[in-house]
């Protein structure tokens, strides 16, 4: 997915969110934003929004000297999600189709995106996901594909959200599937890192790897060959969240093997996915 004009102000908005979260003073914020305005002019509009956002955010980290402005917020998100874990497990356990409901629970967690939403309502997101459901739904196709699959590569997204993902991972493991769960190599926004994955116990149910990059989504030109090989040879890929969708929806290397699970939080994503703002979707790529 290429970048659009509406993406540009989003790059800068995410940077401001980072600086606010880090307690950067207003004068410094102005300086950083004004410098970034020139920096953003050099971005390639044919690159994905995730790629360009990452460049702006990581540049701001460098300029402010703040390595991880969401460190505290990520732990709080993880702790909140862990407190909900027993309830989420019960929802899945008591459903007629536990795998389908695990997918719905997992996508509800995609509301935890501090780069876009500075606040969020978990209960409302869970209710929408369970009751309204997917506006685009390739579950039957996925279920058929899963039958002949031994190993699933799961591309994770945000801290906190990964607890919701763990519910889905556990369902896949219960069906005899091995899951490889990929997180970011280093901090960017509130994306999950290895530290977050271990904190929520994902290492107990899946093999943990990193993408080898701290760019949002999966930038094929920035991940190492080891991860690229994983991506190219995976039998089945579950891609979580908008940035992974932006990165991979038009990549031939994963077509026919990837399923996107996300909440639509931006109009351009909605247009690309054929969905409305606020929808949750589960669709084949």
Q: What does it look like?
A:
The chain is of the alpha/beta class and 285 residues long. The chain folds into 2 domains: 5-64; 70-284, Rossmann fold, CATH 3.40.50. It is 51% helix and 12% strand. The protein is built from 12 helices and 7 strands. The protein has helices at 5-22, 26-40, 49-64, 71-93, 98-108, 122-132, 139-147, 161-174, 194-199, 225-233, 242-248, 267-273; strands at 134-137, 151-155, 178-183, 207-210, 236-240, 258-263, 280-284. Strands 1-7-6-5-2-3-4 form a 7-stranded mixed sheet, with helices on both faces. Helix 5 (98-108) packs antiparallel against helix 8 (161-174). The chain is globular and about 55 Å long. The mean pLDDT is 94.
Itemize the secondary structure elements and their pairings:
Layout: H1 5-22, H2 26-40, H3 49-64, H4 71-93, H5 98-108, H6 122-132, E1 134-137, H7 139-147, E2 151-155, H8 161-174, E3 178-183, H9 194-199, E4 207-210, H10 225-233, E5 236-240, H11 242-248, E6 258-263, H12 267-273, E7 280-284
Parallel strand pairs: 1-7, 2-3, 2-5, 3-4, 5-6
Antiparallel strand pairs: 6-7
Helix pairs in contact: 1-2, 1-3, 2-3, 4-5, 4-8, 5-6, 5-8
The helical percent reads 40-55%
* CATH homologous superfamily designation of the largest domain: Uncharacterised protein PF01937, DUF89, domain 3
Give the strand line-up of the largest sheet. 1-7-6-5-2-3-4
Any idea of the CATH class of the largest domain? Alpha Beta
* Overall CATH architecture of the largest domain: 3-Layer(aba) Sandwich
Classify the beta-strand content into a percent band. 5-15%
Distance between the termini: 12 Å
Q: Which blocks of ≥5 consecutive residues have pLDDT under 50?
A: none
CATH topology of the largest domain: Rossmann fold
- Would you tell me the overall average pLDDT? 94
- Radius of gyration from the alpha-carbon trace, in angstroms: 18 Å
The overall strand count is: 7
Give the tally of structural domains. 2
Outline type: globular
- Characterize the largest beta sheet: strand count, sense, and whether it forms a barrel: 7 strands, mixed
What pattern of helices and strands is seen along the backbone?
A: HHHHHHEHEHEHEHEHEHE
């Amino acid at each position: 997915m290429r970048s659009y004009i509406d993406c540009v102000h989003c790059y800068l908005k995410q940077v401001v969110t980072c600086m606010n979260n880090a307690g950067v003073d207003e004068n410094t914020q102005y300086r950083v934003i004004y410098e970034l305005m020139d920096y953003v002019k050099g971005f390639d509009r044919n690159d994905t929004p995730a790629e360009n956002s990452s460049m702006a955010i990581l540049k701001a980290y460098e300029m402010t000297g703040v390595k991880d402005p969401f460190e505290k917020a990520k732990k709080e998100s993880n702790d909140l999600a862990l407190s909900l874990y027993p309830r989420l497990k019960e929802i899945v356990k008591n459903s007629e189709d536990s795998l389908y409901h695990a997918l719905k629970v997992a996508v509800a967690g995609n509301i935890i995106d501090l780069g876009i939403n500075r606040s969020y309502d978990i209960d409302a997101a869970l209710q929408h996901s369970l009751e309204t459901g997917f506006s685009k739904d390739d579950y039957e196709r996925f279920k058929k594909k899963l039958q002949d699959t031994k190993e699933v590569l799961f591309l994770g997204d945000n801290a906190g959200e990964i607890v919701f993902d763990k519910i889905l991972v556990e369902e896949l493991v219960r069906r005899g599937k091995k899951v490889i769960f990929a997180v970011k190599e280093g901090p960017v926004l509130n994306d999950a890192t290895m530290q977050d994955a271990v904190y929520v116990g994902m290492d107990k149910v899946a093999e943990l790897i990193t993408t080898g990059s701290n760019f949002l989504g999966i930038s094929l030109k920035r991940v190492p060959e080891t991860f690229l090989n994983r991506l190219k040879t995976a039998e089945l890929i579950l891609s979580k969240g908008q940035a992974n969708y932006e990165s991979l929806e038009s990549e031939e290397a994963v077509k026919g093997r990837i399923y996107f699970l996300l909440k639509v939080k931006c109009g351009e994503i909605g247009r690309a996915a054929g969905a409305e703002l606020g929808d949750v979707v589960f669709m084949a790529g």
